[in-house]
Recover the amino acids of this structure.
C-alpha cells in the first residue's frame, strides 16, 4: 500500500477544516462541509447497493457534486466510472454494461438521455439526479439522498484496490475500461506535485471536463495538496477568463485548443488573469505562436505540458515551465513532450521490446507505479500492451540525448481533435454500418481550430449514391459528435499496400503538405 | 511496487549524463562516471559474495564513496547497513552480527578499529579499505576492487524488498535494526520533494553524518531530483560555511546544534552563504533566538524542519519555511514539529491506540508508505510498535486544531514528580528564555520525597554568570512550580549522540546508580 485517495481529505480536515474546499457558481463549501457531504454520499451509495469495488457512474458537466461523486464513491469503498460526456447513448450504455455500473449520477444537462440509457443498458438500476430542478420521474434526488444518509466512516480502500474504470476509445472499435488503483492515481498525484502542477495555498480551476484523466490528474494533485477548488461547468473562452479573475485562480489545466481560444478571443483583454501561476496543458503540443500569445495573456503563468494516457493515470512526462521559457538554450523543445516524471521510466523500444538507440523512432513504453491494473475484462488486450511491467503506449516517438521525448506518430491509428482522442477504427465501424459504404479510411487532417479534424475517405458500393450530410447524420446516431467526420471525400478505391493494408500515409500526404503534424 | 532506489540514477543518466554528480574535496564525477562506478561496485560486491538482500556495511565519514556504497549495494541487489560512527567497537560488532553483515567498507578515519571489529564480530568476513593511503593488511582496496570489476546490469530490486538495515537505539538500550524497503525510502523522498527540501537544479551539501536517516532523506530526495551533490567529511562550523561558499551550495540539512555553531562562530561573517535556498533541520526544534540569528546568517534560506525517526524512513511531519517566517500569524509555531507530510498520516493516541482529543498529550502514531518493514529479527518488538499499520513512535505529543504536532517529550523521558507529569521540553524551553543559558537538558533524578525530582543540566554562554537560585526564580515566572528544577548543575557541554541529540541517558546514569527508575 502506497496511499489511498481519501487520505487527502483526512489530511485537509486535520489542517484546515474551515478553509474553503469548493467554489461552484454561488455554492461554496468549507472542507468540514465537504467532508460531511462526502461521508454522507459514501453511506448513501452503500445503502443503494454499492459494495466494495462496485462501479458508480457519473454523467455530467463539471460541478462540486462531481468532486463529491469521486470522493464519496471512494469513501464508501466503490470505484468510479466517470462517463465521457461526448459519447452517444449507445456508447455510454455499452460502457456501463461492460463494467456493470448499476448506479449512475446524471445532471441537468444530461437528464434527457436517461430514458434511452435505461432502455439500452442492462446493468443500470438506479439513477440519481444531480441537478437543481425538479427530479425527473424514476430518479432519486442527490441532495435528498445526501440529507437522508448518515455520515459513515471511511471504508479504507487503498493500495492496489480498484479505484476507477475510465473508458477510452478502442483500436478494435470498442471502448476499453482502464482499471486504475488507489496507488496508481496517488503516485501520479505525487509526481504531479513534484513537477509543480499546483500548491496547497493555490486555487485550482477545474474547467476541462472532469470525466477525463487529464482533469482528474489536476484534481487529485490539488486534493493531495489540500487547496481550494474553483469548479466551472464547462469551457468557454470568456467564461474561463471571467472565473479566473473573479476567484483569483492560480492553477489550471486546459488543452491547447482551449488556451488558443481563450487567448485569442477579441474580448480577452478585458479580464485580468495575472493571478494564474501555472497553466498546465495536455492532449497535444502547443504551437510556438500560440504559446507566445498565451504568455502575454497570462503574464505570470508558468506553462507545463503533460504527456500521457489514461492507462498511465495519466502522466508519463512533463515539459517544464523552464523548458517553455527556453532557459536551457536548447532549441525545438516546444515540439517535445518533455521528460519522464519523478516516478515513471520512459523509453523507446522496437517491436521486440528492445530499447532503440537515441534519436531512433520506436514505440514509447512507460513503467511506474502509475501504470494501470489492466483493461476491464480484457486480459488479452492487457497482456498485449502491458509487458514486463511496461505499458506500450502505441505512440511512436524518439528520445534525445537529454531525455526529451518527441512523439512523432501514433502507432495506433488515432486522431487528436480538440484534445479528444478519436480512434479511426471507431469511425470506420460507424461508416461501415451505412448500406451505401463499401470501404472507408478515416484520417486526421490539419485544422486551425482543432489541431486535427476527422476526415473520411469513402468508397461507395457500385451504383449507390449518398451525400456527405447523410453519412454525417448516420454517424451522429452511433458515435459521439466529436468523432464524426467533419469532411468526407469520395473515391473509387483506397490505396493499398502489397500486404493489403490501406496506405493512410498516402491519404494524409496532400493534406499535410506544408504542415507539421503536431502530434503528442 | 512503487519505485526502486536506483531508478533515480537511470533517470539522471537519461537526462544529463554529463552533469556533475558528486564533488568531494578535489574529486569530481559526472553522472556518467558515477553511474559507471556504481555499476562496477555492484558487480564487485556480488563477486565478494553479496547475494540478493545481503547486508553490506560502511563505517566512515561522509564521502562520494559513501554515496557509491549506497547505490552500488542497491545496484548489485544488496541492502545497506550504514554504521553509526559514534559507536564503540562492541556496539558496531553487535550490529554487524545481528543482521549478518559480512562485507564492511571502512575509511581512513576508522581503519584503526578494524582489528578489534574483526576479533569481536563473528559475521565479518571481508573488509574493504575506502581511503587514499596504503591499504592495511588483510583488507581489499576500494579503488582496486572497482577497477577490477566489470559494470553489471542493475539487479532490479524494488518495492517491498529490503533496501537497508539502519541501527537505532544507542540511547535506548540494545540497538535495533530498522528494516527499510525500496518503497518506504522512495515514498519518503517523494514527500520530501513535495515539501521543497531540494530541487533538480540544486547543489545539495551532505555534511551531517550520512549513516543517519536524516542525512539519508536529503540524499535520496536529491538523488531522485537528479541534482549535484557536494559532500564534506564531517561538520565543523567554519568548514561548513567555507564549502557552502566555495561550491554555491543551495540546499543542506543540519541539526539545530550545528546551525547554532555555524551561525554564532565569531568568524562566520567572513563567508558569503547567500546561495543557500533551503536549510532543512531535524532532531529537535530550534529556539526562536537561534532561528533569528540563523536567518540573518543565511539571508536567502527558507528553513524547513523535519520530525521523524528511522522507523519512518524517516519523516513524519514538516514545519514549512512559511511557518518559520510566521506567515500564518499563528504564534508558537517554532515549538511545533509541523504537519503531516504528503504521504503520512499522523495522530496522537492513548495507551489503547484510540485517538485523543485535540490538545491532549498522548503518543504520536504515524502511518504511511514510509513505515519500516519491522525490526530485524525482533518480531515481538515490531509487533509492539507497529500495530494496524501505525508506527507508535514512543514520543509524547499533542496536536492542535490546525494539524500542527508538538512533541512534548520522549514518553520515556517524561518525569513523574509527586504524581505530576513533567515534560522535559517545557522546562528546557523555560530555561532557554534566560539570557545566560546556552543549552540545557532536564532529567528526572531520584527523590525520596517526590519519586523523581526535576534536575537541570545547564551550559551557560561564555563569560556569563548566573546562580541556581536565579534560574529557579526565572522558571517560576514561566511554568508551574512543580515543573521547575529542584536542582541545577552547570557544565561546559552536553553529551551528544551522533545525530546531534542530547544523550540524557548519560546524564541520568550517575544519579540513578543504585536506584530503579520507574519508566512507563
Amino acid at each position: 500500500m502506497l496511499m489511498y485517495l481519501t487520505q487527502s481529505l483526512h489530511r485537509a480536515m486535520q489542517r484546515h477544516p474551515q478553509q474553503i474546499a469548493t467554489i461552484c457558481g454561488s455554492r461554496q463549501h468549507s472542507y468540514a462541509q465537504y467532508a460531511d457531504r462526502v461521508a454522507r454520499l459514501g453511506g448513501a451509495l452503500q445503502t443503494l447497493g454499492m459494495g466494495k469495488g462496485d462501479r458508480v457512474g457519473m454523467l455530467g458537466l463539471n460541478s462540486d457534486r462531481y468532486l463529491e461523486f469521486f470522493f464519496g464513491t471512494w469513501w464508501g469503498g466503490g470505484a468510479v466510472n466517470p462517463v465521457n460526456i461526448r459519447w452517444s447513448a449507445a456508447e455510454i450504455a455499452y460502457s456501463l454494461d461492460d463494467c456493470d455500473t448499476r448506479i449512475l449520477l446524471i445532471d441537468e444537462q444530461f437528464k434527457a438521455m436517461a430514458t434511452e440509457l435505461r432502455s439500452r443498458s442492462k446493468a443500470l438500476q438506479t439513477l440519481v439526479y444531480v441537478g437543481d430542478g425538479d427530479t425527473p420521474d424514476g430518479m432519486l434526488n442527490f441532495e435528498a439522498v445526501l440529507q437522508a444518509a448518515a455520515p459513515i466512516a471511511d471504508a479504507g480502500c487503498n493500495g492496489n484496490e480498484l479505484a476507477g474504470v475510465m473508458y477510452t476509445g478502442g483500436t478494435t472499435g470498442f471502448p476499453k475500461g482502464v482499471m486504475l488503483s488507489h496507488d496508481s492515481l496517488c503516485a501520479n498525484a505525487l509526481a504531479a506535485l513534484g513537477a509543480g502542477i499546483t500548491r496547497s495555498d493555490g486555487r485550482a480551476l477545474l474547467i476541462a471536463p472532469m470525466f477525463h484523466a487529464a482533469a482528474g490528474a489536476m484534481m487529485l494533485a490539488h486534493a493531495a495538496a489540500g487547496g481550494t477548488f474553483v469548479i466551472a461547468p464547462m469551457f468557454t473562452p470568456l467564461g474561463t477568463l471571467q472565473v479566473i479573475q473573479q476567484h483569483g485562480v492560480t492553477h489550471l489545466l486546459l488543452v491547447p485548443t482551449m488556451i488558443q481560444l481563450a487567448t485569442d478571443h477579441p474580448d480577452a483583454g478585458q479580464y485580468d488573469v495575472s493571478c494564474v501561476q501555472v497553466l498546465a496543458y495536455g492532449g497535444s503540443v502547443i504551437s510556438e505562436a500560440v504559446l507566445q500569445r498565451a504568455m502575454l495573456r497570462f503574464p505570470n503563468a508558468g506553462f507545463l505540458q503533460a504527456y500521457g494516457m489514461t492507462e498511465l493515470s495519466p502522466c508519463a512526462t512533463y515539459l517544464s515551465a523552464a523548458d517553455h521559457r527556453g532557459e536551457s538554450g536548447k532549441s525545438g523543445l516546444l515540439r517535445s513532450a518533455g521528460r519522464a516524471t519523478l516516478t515513471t521510466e520512459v523509453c523507446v523500444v522496437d517491436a521486440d521490446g528492445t530499447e532503440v538507440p537515441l534519436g531512433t523512432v520506436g514505440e514509447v513504453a512507460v513503467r511506474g507505479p502509475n501504470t494501470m491494473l489492466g483493461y476491464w475484462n480484457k486480459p488479452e488486450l492487457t497482456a498485449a500492451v502491458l509487458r514486463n511491467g511496461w505499458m506500450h503506449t502505441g505512440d511512436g516517438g524518439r528520445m534525445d540525448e537529454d531525455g526529451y521525448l518527441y512523439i512523432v506518430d501514433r502507432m495506433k491509428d488515432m486522431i487528436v481533435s480538440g484534445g479528444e482522442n478519436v480512434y479511426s477504427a471507431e469511425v470506420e465501424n460507424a461508416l461501415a454500418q451505412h448500406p451505401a459504404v463499401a470501404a472507408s479510411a478515416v484520417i486526421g487532417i490539419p485544422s486551425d481550430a482543432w489541431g486535427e479534424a476527422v476526415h473520411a475517405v469513402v468508397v461507395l458500393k457500385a451504383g449507390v449514391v449518398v451525400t456527405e450530410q447523410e453519412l454525417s447524420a448516420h454517424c451522429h446516431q452511433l458515435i459521439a459528435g466529436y468523432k464524426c467526420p467533419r469532411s468526407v471525400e469520395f473515391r473509387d478505391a483506397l490505396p493499398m499496400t502489397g500486404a493489403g493494408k490501406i496506405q493512410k500515409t498516402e491519404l494524409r500526404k496532400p493534406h499535410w503538405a506544408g504542415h507539421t503534424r503536431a502530434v503528442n
